[in-house]
């Protein structure tokens, strides 16, 4: 016997059970069929009359059920019956659960252009470069002597003096930027006491962790193990940044480190948002990068040149960026100032080469397409892109081609690269650039592309921001970050409405 129905009802059960041992008098049994006279036949005839009355009444509703004999069998044998709906019957679905919305309520930065989000962004709008000669150590014998170096930095009021002396700079930058983001988000001591700390998490990413602490330990070991910093191992590992901030805050929610080279920050943002959407956390995603070197020395402020034909490589920078991510209703309940809404994002892998992008740019295109689909955003809605654009010949061009494939038909599109002024902050790049994108949403101004004097041949320069800041009412902002190993990431922000 085969029964087919899109819903379950007593009628279906009766039809199947009653016809299991029925002898049909005619080959084409209909709803008006009369069974042979017998005790069973009389009962079935009464059942058939009730059934016809039921169907007559049921047909006035949304659907009807018809029963037909699928086989003609001799007396005493079993008959197979198919029970099918005459019309499509709607299946009752579970109510759709409204997805939690994620918003940005706090920002903290430590960059070569300032340690306050507004100071940082105002410098970007004015085209100020943070790239200069390295002063932190003697690099006179190095072929590269410039970087986006942080010249002045203080942890006073943010990190305990004892820890400040022992920690690597990557942790100091992260802790300072993280606490500034909390202060900027209005997380006072009173609010902190009211938080469900089991649902407050910290995600920290670093490209390489505490390289200076690790190097100092190796040098000390050459003399004696007794000379080594006893905290050299924990202060060098990438996970310790998130751990230290969580210890300081007493936050017991999701806490781990991500390291996907220069795409690290965006991976952290996406994972932090997903924890909130799933109800596993209500707040923080943090991002950090380590200190690094640059590529060229002649006229440092002109060294980083995304999309310019005369570029010869990227300039390394140092710093940190932290976003305070919060579930919308939670933010509204505590009266938080909402800077922007996080719409979603995605990540992919080129699976091609350790340092070179895929020649067809398919990994980048796929990442952007997936980000748009995940966020439910159309290509036409995206009118501002803060590109990865590191000032490398292959990388800049492949990203540009991918952007044109996705958004080339959008006449409102504007594209810039924050790296033209602060260099490449490795693991922190995505977070700092996300803050730049959010500031563009807040202020209605997008910063220039500095040093873009002779764009690559074939580029539609009309989509690239010029040497001066521009007015733009940002509808949706896309921020890209790509890392060695083929890690691609794209995230989307929009004005909160």
Short description:
The chain is an alpha+beta fold and 497 residues long. It is 31% helix and 16% strand. The two termini are 57 Å apart.
Would you give an account of this structure?
It is found in: Plastid, Chloroplast. Residues 1-25 form the signal peptide. This is 3-oxoacyl-[acyl-carrier-protein] synthase I, chloroplastic. By secondary structure, this protein is α+β, with helices and mostly antiparallel strands. The protein has 2 domains: 10-85, no CATH class; 102-494, Thiolase/Chalcone synthase (Peroxisomal Thiolase, Chain A, domain 1), CATH 3.40.47. It has helices at 10-18, 39-58, 117-125, 161-166, 169-184, 189-194, 211-221, 240-249, 264-277, 328-333, 362-375, 393-407, 419-422, 429-443; strands spanning 65-69, 81-85, 102-110, 132-133, 146-147, 202-205, 255-258, 284-288, 320-327, 340-349, 382-386, 414-416, 445-446, 470-471, 476-483, 487-494. The strands form 5 sheets. An 8-stranded mixed β-sheet has the order 8-9-3-10-16-15-11-12. Strand 15 (476-483) and strand 16 (487-494) form a beta hairpin.
Order of helices and strands: HHEEEHEEHHHEHHEHEEHEHEHEHHEEEE
Count the DSSP helices: 14
Number of domain modules: 2
Q: Termini distance?
A: 57 Å
* Biggest beta-sheet profile: 8 strands, mixed
How would you name the oligomeric state of the polypeptide chains in this document?
single chain
What's the architecture of the largest domain in CATH terms?
3-Layer(aba) Sandwich
Residue share in β-strands:
15-25%
CATH-defined superfamily of the largest domain: Thiolase/Chalcone synthase
Which range best describes the helical content: under 10%, 10-25%, 25-40%, 40-55%, 55-70% or over 70%?
25-40%
CATH fold title of the largest domain: Peroxisomal Thiolase, Chain A, domain 1
- Determine Rg (CA atoms, Å): 32 Å
Strand order of the biggest β-sheet: 8-9-3-10-16-15-11-12
Low-confidence stretches: 1-31, 58-95, 283-294
Query: Could you report the average pLDDT, rounded to the nearest whole number?
Result: 80
């Amino acid at each position: 016997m085969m029964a087919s129905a899109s819903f379950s009802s007593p009628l279906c059960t009766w039809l199947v059970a009653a016809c299991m041992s029925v002898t049909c008098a005619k080959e084409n049994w209909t709803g008006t069929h009369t069974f042979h006279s017998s005790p069973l036949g009389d009962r079935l005839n009464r059942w058939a009359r009730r059934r016809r009355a039921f169907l007559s009444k049921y047909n006035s509703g949304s659907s009807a059920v018809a029963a037909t004999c699928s086989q003609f069998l001799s007396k005493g044998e079993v008959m197979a019956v198919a029970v099918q709906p005459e019309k499509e019957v709607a299946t009752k679905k579970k109510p759709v659960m409204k997805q939690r919305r994620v918003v940005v309520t706090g920002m903290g930065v430590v960059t070569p252009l300032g340690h306050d989000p507004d100071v940082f962004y105002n410098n970007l709008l004015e085209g100020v470069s943070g790239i200069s000669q390295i002063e932190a150590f003697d690099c006179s014998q190095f072929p590269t002597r410039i970087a986006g170096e942080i010249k002045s930095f203080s942890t006073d009021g943010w990190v305990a003096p004892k820890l400040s002396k022992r920690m690597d700079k990557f942790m100091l930058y992260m802790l300072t930027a993280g606490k500034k983001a909390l202060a900027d988000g209005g997380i006072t001591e009173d609010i902190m006491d009211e938080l469900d700390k089991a649902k407050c998490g910290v995600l920290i990413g670093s490209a390489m962790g505490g390289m200076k602490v690790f190097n100092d330990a190796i040098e000390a070991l050459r003399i004696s193990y007794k000379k080594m910093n006893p905290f050299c191992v924990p202060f060098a590992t990438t996970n310790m940044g998130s751990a230290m901030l969580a210890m300081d805050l007493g936050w017991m929610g999701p806490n781990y480190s991500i390291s996907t080279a220069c795409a690290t920050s965006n991976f952290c943002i996406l994972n932090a948002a997903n924890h909130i959407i799933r109800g596993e956390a209500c707040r923080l995603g943090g991002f950090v990068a380590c200190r690094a070197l640059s590529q060229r020395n002649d006229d440092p402020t002109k060294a980083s040149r995304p999309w310019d034909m005369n570029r010869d490589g990227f300039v390394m920078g140092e710093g940190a960026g932290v976003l305070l991510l919060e579930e919308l209703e939670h933010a509204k309940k505590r009266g938080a100032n909402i800077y922007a809404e996080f719409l979603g994002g995605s990540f992919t892998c080129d699976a091609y080469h350790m340092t070179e992008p895929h020649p067809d740019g398919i990994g980048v295109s796929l990442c952007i397409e997936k980000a748009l689909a995940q966020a439910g955003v159309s290509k036409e809605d995206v009118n501002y892109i803060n590109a990865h654009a590191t000032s490398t010949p292959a990388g800049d061009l492949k990203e540009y081609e991918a952007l044109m494939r996705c958004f080339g038909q959008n006449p409102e599109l504007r594209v810039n690269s924050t790296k033209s002024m602060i260099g490449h902050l490795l693991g922190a790049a995505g977070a700092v650039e996300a803050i730049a994108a959010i500031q563009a949403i807040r202020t209605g101004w997008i910063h220039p592309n500095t040093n873009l004097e002779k764009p690559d041949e074939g580029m539609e320069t009309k989509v690239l921001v010029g040497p001066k800041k521009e007015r733009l009412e940002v509808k949706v902002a896309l921020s890209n970050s790509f890392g060695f190993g083929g890690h691609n990431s794209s995230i989307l922000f929009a004005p909160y409405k």
